[in-house]
Each structure stands twice: as structure tokens, then as C-alpha cells.
Amino acid sequence: MGLGAAAPGAPRRAGHDEGHAPAGGAARRGLHLLRRPLRPRRALEGRALPRGRAAPRPAGGAPAAERPARPCDQGGRLSPVDTSARTRSAVTLAVLAVLFVIGTVWAWSSVTEPFPEAEEQPACLDSPVAAGDRITPGNVVVNVLNASNTDGLAGETMDALVRKGFAEGSRGNTAAETSESGAVIWTEDPDGPAAALLKSYLGPGTQIIEQATAEPGITVVVGEGFPGIKDGKKGVEAKTDTTVCSPPTL
């Protein structure tokens, strides 16, 4: 009953039933490389590499030299060389700070400084005139004062003189008396060419009085009965060397 006993065979070692089955075939190709030591590679310098790549070149220069350590005293403090370097840096920073402050103050003063006001030009300047020189109305500055009871007479007379070519001076009122012609000329040079030229526009009966005035130039006082400005001379020659208060040239 039951199966027959196994056929006798070669004797087996003890514990053979716990062993592993033997390998079924030879090891795969290439795995033996993992068991062998790798051969050292030769230098690649100068040898051709696959895929047309350039061979590596040798080092182009000597390695950088190491700098010596910064000298310190036994207490770990900086050497005199480091102390002087720090001193120079501090002095440089201080100088730069001073220059910055000076530049800032100068820029602020330049920005806040008011624009210079234009200098007021005088109404006329004494210009030298030699004997024989010709004086025209444009060389003479005239002021007009109203001595009459007619309002605006000084302005009307000034406008008429300006149209004739005279340079405009000041205008105003006065209580001075005039001659029968209704006009008087005040000037510091009664024999000068400026007075003679102005008189030709006022009438032959106009008096010329040597009198200084507060305003520069030659002054005309017009009063009651003044007939107005008429056509006069285009110019007058100076008989002697003199001066004429003429408008400043710009």
C-alpha cells in the first residue's frame, strides 16, 4: 500500500534539503567586470576623443601663490601697518565728508540767492561835444514842467517834443513864472547848442535862463498862453567845446 521507496542513489551531504538550487546557466556577459579591478586610465592629453571633441590641454599657468598671513602681535591686535591703513581711510572719509558739506552749502546758497536786479540806467550822460559838431534832437534829453492852470499841458508838450525826435525825460508841475511867450528854458549852459536847438521848437520869444534843475537834461517850463510845439531846426552846430546830456547808448 502506498508508493514504493525511492531508488537508492549516491549518498548526499547532511542538510542538503536546505541548500539552494544550483544556477541554471552561465553568468551574463559583462557582469564579471564588477568583480575585476579597474585598470588605471592613461592621460588624455594629446589623444583624440570620440565624436570629434578636442583633447584637454595642460594647465596654462602656475598655481596662484598663497599670501602670507597678516602679521599680528601676541595679543591678537593689528600690526602698525594695519593701523596706519585704517588711519588713512578715516582721514580720507573725513575729507570727503567736509567736501560734501561745502558743496551742499554752496549749492543751497546758489539756489536760494535772489536774482540780481537790473541796474537802473541814468536818464542821460554828459557827452563831450567838440566845436563844429552837429547836435540833433535825439542827442538832447528834455524835461517838461507845467506852470499853467491847464491840466495835462506838460504831457501834451512832452509828447509833441518826442514826436519831433527829442529824448523823453521827466514831467511834472511847478509854480514858476514864464515869459510872455508862455515858455522858459532852464539849463546850465545857456549858450550851448542844446538850448539853441530846443528854442527853435518853442518860438523866438522863449527865454533861456541859466538854472540848475533836479532832473538831468534840459528843462522847459510851459505856462498860460503857450501856443504849443512847432517845427524847428534839424540840428545845430556847437560853437565851442562843450557837453550835452544825451541818452545812454545801450
TrEMBL record:
Residues 1-12, 46-66 have a biased composition (Low complexity). Residues 1-84 are annotated as: Disordered. Pfam families: LytR_C (PF13399). Residues 140-226 form the LytR/CpsA/Psr regulator C-terminal domain. This is LytR family transcriptional regulator. It comes from Nocardioides immobilis. Residues 29-41 have a biased composition (Basic residues).
